[in-house]
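Supplementary Data S3. Sequence and C-alpha cells for construct A.
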Amino acid sequence: MRLWKNPALVTLLALGSAVTPAFAADPLSAPAPIPASGWIATVKGNLGVGSSYPGSDDFSAIGYPSISFRRAGAPQRFSAPDDGLSFSVLEDSAFRFGVVGRFQGGRYLKNDRRLYGLEKINWAVEPGLFLEYWPVDFLRARAEIRHGVNGHDGFVADLGIDWVQRLGAFILSLGPRLALGDSEFTQTYFGVTPFEAAVNGLVTPYNPSGGITSVGATAGLSYDWSQQWSTTAFVSYKRLVSDAANSPIVKRFGSENQIGVGLTVSYSFDTGL
C-alpha cells in the first residue's frame, strides 16, 4: 500500500461543504443541547483507502478534513459516504438540487513502474451539479454530472440509489452505483496511443469510447454517540465494464475490481453566529 498525499486535495476538501451521513441524532446520553438558533458547524476527519488510480490493483490511503454548516434546528441531511462535496441551492422535503465537486487522483510512474512510457495524468477537480429525490423517507436517488479540470477534460456522471434505515443510534445505508464517462475521460485514463505502446512495450494501442465505465455498490454504517459526535464507516465496490474494463492498462497492470474503505469522525458545535 502506498500512502498518497496532495496538498491541493486537502485544501479543496477542507473548503468543501461535506455533510455528515446522519439524520437528527437520537442521543444515547444527555449532552448539552445544541441551540435552536444561529448556525451549527460540523467538522469532519476523513480517512479513505482506494485504488491508486482508475483501474489500478494497488491501493493508496489519504486523510483530509472537511467542514459544513447548517441552521440550528434544521435536521442534518443524509449523505452517502461516496457522495461528492455538495452545497444545496434548492431544498425541500423530497428534492435537493445544487453544486457538487469531486477530486480525482492522478496516475504517476511512482504509482507503478510498469506504467513506464505512458503519459502522466495530473490530479483533477470535477465541479458540477447534483439532484436528489426521496420518493419515500427510506429511499434516496441521486445523480451527479461533473466536468474535469486539470487532469482530464471529460464529462462524468454518477448515479445511485440508497436504502437508508435508522436502527436506534445506528444508520445503515446500502445501494447500487452506476458511473459513466465520455470519450475524453475514458481516453485519458484507459486509452493507449501508438507511441505510448511502443515505448512501454507491454501494452497495445487502444482507443476507448465513452459510456458506462463501472457498476457497483456502496454500504455505510453511522453511529451517533451524541448530538455532537458521530462516526461513519463504509465500503464500496466498483466493477469496471465495457471499454474501461477492456483497456490493456487494466488487463496488464490493474484489475477490473475496484474496492474502497473509509472512516469518518464528525463533531458538530454551535458557532455562536
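Construct B, processed identically:
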Amino acid sequence: MNRKELNPDSSPQAAFGARLRSSRESHGWKQEDLAEHMGYSSTHISAVETGRKIPTLRFSRSADRAFGTEGIADTFERQWREIKHGALLEGFPEFVGHEGRAAEIRLYEVGVMPGLLQTSDYASALADSAVRRGAITAEQASERVSLVSERQAVLRRTPPPLVLAVLDEGCVRRPVGGPAVMDAQLARLIDFASLPNTVFQVAPFAMGTDRPFNLPITVITLADRSLMSYAESAQRGHLERECAAVVPLLTAYHQLQAAALSQSASVAMIEQLRRGTP
C-alpha cells in the first residue's frame, strides 16, 4: 500500500490530518468506514489525512461527532480554528467555538466595540489601522474582519443566546473610522438594545474605582449550564474552564451591571452622541 507519512509538527494542517488518521486507525476503521460515519467520500477523507485538502468547519464537527470528541478541550473543531485563525491570540479560536454554542454571553469591553457588536466598517477601520502600524498583514486584517462577521452569526441563531453587554464609556466615545462609521456603529448599538434577548449598558467614567474589571472579560454559559470565561492581554488570551475560577468573575459582572447605567439611560447616551451633544 502507498502510504504518505506526514510530519504532524510541519503545520497545523498536517497535525490535523495525522490526528484524523490516528483516530481512525485506533477505531479499527478503514477510510471507507470513516467516510460513512462522517458523510464524506473516502477520497475526501484521504485528501484531508494526507494534507492535500484543508478541512472545513463542517468536516471538523463531523469528525468530532464520529469520534465522540465533542465537548472536550482538544476537539477537531479547535484544531480547525487554529488552521483558519492561526494569527489570532492564543486561546481565542477555541473560545469562538464555545461562544457560537453558548446559551448566555456576558461581555465587558474597554476602549473599542466588542466584536459581536461591530459593524463591518468599524471592524475594517480597526484592522486597517493595525496594518498601517505594521502589527498585522493585509491578509490577516481581512481574516479578522471575516471572523467578526462569522461570530455575529450567533446572534441570528435559533434560539438565540441571551447576550448581556456592558461597554466602558470609552468604547462609545472613542472615534474610529470617521463620523459616518461611528454614527452607523452607534446606531448598531441602539438596534442591539432593542432585541428581546439582549441587555445593553454603559459603564460611565464616573464609576471610577467601582468598576470591577480593568480588562475586557467574557463569561459564557453553555447549554448544560457550565461556565467558561475568556480574558486577554495585548499578547495572549486565556480561556478558563474551572467553575471555581469563573464564579467570582460572574459575581463581579453582576456588580458591574448594578453600578452601570440602565439600558434606557445607556441608549439615551448613545442618542446624544449621535446628535453630537456631550
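The two ends are 74 Å apart (CA to CA). The chain has a mean pLDDT of 89.
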